[in-house]
Amino acid sequence: MKRGLVLGLVAALVVVGAATGLAASTQRDDENLGKFFFGSQMARAEVVMVVGNQVHDFRIDQGRVQSVRPGELELLERDGTKQVIAISPTARIVYQGLKPAGGIVRGLFAITVREGDQPAHLVRVSGARRTP
Asked: Are 20 and 33 in contact (CB under 8 A)?
C-alpha cells in the first residue's frame, strides 16, 4: 500500500508541475518533469494527495548525511538547511548499489519519505562516502 502511495506521489508531482506552468518556464517536456522535481536540485518537497478519500501529506527530504543517531538522520540539504529526520524502526531502507559495511554513514546521500510529522517510512541511500 505504501509503495502505491509513493508511486502516486510521483504521479501527483508531475501533474502539479504541469499545472503550475513550471514546465513551460523551464522548457522541459512532460517526460522529464519527475526527473526535474526529484533531481539533484531538489532540497525538499511537500506533496498533499487524496487517496481513497483520505488526505495524505508527504514530506520528502534529500541531502548529504551529516550524522546518524539511533532512530534519526541529520541531512544537509541543497539549500544549506540541516534537517533532523526521525526514522521509523520499521522503515524500508533501500541502498542504491552495495550496502555499506556500517549501514547508513556520514557522507552518503539520502532521500527520506515521511507522512506528516511521523518518522520516515522510506529511506533511499546512495553514493560514495565523503571523507570529512
From this structure: no
Whole-angstrom CA distances from 69 to 19, 26, 75, 103, 105 are 40, 39, 12, 12, 10
CATH topology of domain 58-126: OB fold (Dihydrolipoamide Acetyltransferase, E2P) (2.40.50)
CB count in 10 Å sphere of residue 33: 20
User: What average pLDDT does this structure show over 57-70?
Assistant: 94
- C-alpha 83/C-alpha 100 separation (Å) is 22
Predicted pLDDT at 6: 53
What digits encode the pLDDT tens for the residues 92-118?
Answer: 998 886 676 678 889 999 999 999 999
Q: 42 and 78 in contact (C-beta within 8 Å)?
A: yes
pTM over 0.85, yes/no = no
